[in-house]
Design brief:
21% of the residues lie in helices and 28% in strands. With 122 residues, the protein is α+β, with helices and mostly antiparallel strands. A six-stranded mixed sheet has the order 2-1-3-4-5-6. A hairpin with a 5-residue loop joins strand 5 and strand 6. Keywords: DNA-binding, Nucleus, Transcription, Transcription regulation. It is found in: Nucleus.
């Protein structure tokens, strides 16, 4: 039984569904979303009830530091009686590979020479 809600976030719409992405998504972002969707299909049996999943790309102001084609997945996992919970962030490259922190993303960019080598990683 699937209880997971999936949303795509774009500058003009705050609650678009995954099956009908907004017009502003780049082809690179859509390709990454497709790769991520294939990855989640493989681990389909590990879903938690009432989890809300949102995807962001570099058009969203909080993630404007991302390179085109990279996306962020935010998972809100509710806990407790009052609906409080925790938000987990996962970063995906255009091939669908997952990174757990911004630092991991910056390090991957440094290794692949997407970022200047003189920039210090926090």
């Amino acid at each position: 039984m699937k209880h997971e809600k999936v949303e795509l976030i774009s500058p003009e719409s705050s609650s678009s569904k995954l099956k009908a992405p907004p017009q502003k998504w780049s082809p690179a972002t859509l390709a990454t979303l497709k790769a991520v969707k294939e990855r989640t299909r493989k681990r389909d049996n590990k879903r938690t009830p009432n989890v809300v999943v949102k995807y962001y790309d570099n058009t969203y102001t909080s993630y404007d530091w991302l390179v085109s084609g990279w996306i962020v997945e935010e998972r809100f996992v509710p806990t407790g009686r009052k609906g409080t919970g925790r938000t987990y962030k996962y970063y995906y490259d255009p091939t669908g590979r997952m990174y757990y922190t911004k630092r991991d993303v910056l390090f991957a960019w440094k290794i692949s020479k997407l970022m200047k080598s003189k920039v210090k990683i926090p």
